[in-house]
Every structure is written in structure tokens, then in C-alpha cells.
Structure prediction request, 320 residues.
Amino acid sequence: MIRLTRRAALAAALALPATARAQAYPSGPVRIIVGFGAGGLADLTVRLVGEQLSRRLGQQVVVDNRPGAGGGIAARAGATAAPDGQTLIVLSTGNAINASLFRSLPYDPVADFAPISAMVSFDLVLLTAAGSRFRSVADVLAAGRQGGRLTMATISPGSTQNLAAEWLRVAAGLEATVVPYRTTPEVLTAAQRGDADIAFESFAAARGVIEGGQLRPVASTGERRSALLPAVPTLRDEGLPDYAVTGWNALFAPARTPRPVIDLLNRHVAEILQEPAMRARVLALGVEPLTNTPEAMAALLRDDIALWARIIDRAGIEKQ
Prediction:
């Protein structure tokens, strides 16, 4: 009997015509690696998409949560997986930030992955306490520019929220201190108590205190107003035309995954997230559905890496 090693079997599979490989895919359960714990936004999003993807592919889709090292553990596992489409990986804005913030990583976010599609996007929200003297962005900017030192609460250093706050400090010319907290509840509590003048968080994370009236959203960070907070102006609306921060979670495969497999998955993800019922479920999580082509996702990743590199440099943040 002739026994093929895993490497030999993979080489034989890759030698098949592209159409044959796509028709044979998937050959078993599909694993999606997520660099965040169960119950988080990325996890919930991929479980919604994975449920529908499983029905379309006729195979089980398994979510493999591997939190730690700022998403590095998951990214490394995805980068070294076989490029056959049986293992996929969720990357996020955090991976683009890490590429600019760290001198070296155990993976290359551009070279080691093949983009499939974005899945969701989310803006950040600037929040003030319900009883705060800052009732608008104009109030915040005026105070920060007139010698009144502001405090801005965010989660940990190097997070999207933290760097977005640092960028606002520099871009708007504010006298401000960005104070990082360990957890989102601590950030929100600091703003409610008045320990911080402003909190930077995602709508999804702050939804409860916004809807409960404890914190007031005075601006969002996107290029345009969010469908989730249409009455809240953007920082661009308020006189900062070059300022925009939008986070994303996207589906990738290991580099060298056959293009027909990438295209098949891209089509499925796009169709899944265009379904009205699915869009409603995603919006209920506090994020917005977003799909794009593999080429557009590759460009978004590269552009974000360059953007965060500029922000880190302008804010005077030392690389780690």
C-alpha cells in the first residue's frame, strides 16, 4: 500500500486544475481562527456568518478562539496553516496597528494571508457624562485649545481606541492626556464619574450606557455618520476633515490558498451579509455589515497599516 504524507497529499492537491480544486472544496470541516475570546464582537460576528456558511458549504464551520498577544497567537496559527481553505482566520484593525506598532511580529499581515472579504465595520464614539459641561464636540475642542487640559479615557495602550484618541489630541491641537484603562467597563465608569472628560469606545461596547442615558455621544470617528447613530456628527463634520477612524473585522485565508476557493468564499460571505435578516442581526450587535472584493480588502489592510504608522509617528509613540 502507498501512503502519502500530509505534505505530499497537499502538493498533489495543489497540482490539480483550479476548477477541480474549487469543486472539491471543502473536503471536511472548515475552521475559522479568531484572536479574541468567546462572546466578543469578533466571535459573535464570525459565528453568525459561520452558521450560514456551513449551510452553503455543506460542512461544519468550527470557530477556534485563540486570544492573546494582541491577536498574534491566532494570526501565527492562521499564517502557518495549510493553504487549502480548510483553515481561515479573522484579522482586524488591531493587526494593521500591530504591523506599525511593533518592530517585529511572528507573522506578516500582508504576505502571509490571502484576503477573502471584510465582514463588519465600526466607528468609535466620543462620549461625555450626561451631566458634563461638554455637551458637544465644539465644547471639547474649545476647552482643549484654550488651556483647559482634558483627560481622554481609552482601553489599553496601542488599541484602536487609544491611538484614535492620541490622533485627536495631535490633529486638533489639544492640551490633553490620554489615560489607558485595562477594561472597557473601567473606561465607561471613568467617564460617568467625571474622572475622565471623554471616553473613546465603540458603539457596541458603550450601547448600554448610551441608551441608558449615563453617557452622551457627541461625535463619531467615521468618514460619514453611522447608521447606528445617524443624529451624531462625525469629527469631520466638526472641522477635522482629515480625521477618520473606522475599525473592521475581515476573513482571510493562508497565503497561496487557491484563488477559486477565495472567490467561492467571497461570494458566499457577500451573499450572506446582503440578506436582510442577517443585516438586521449584525446591526443588532452594534456594528455595520461590510463586504468587499479580495483586492479591495488587501488595499484596505495596506492603507490602514500606512495610516497607523503615520499616527504613531505624529503622536510620538515609541515602537515596541
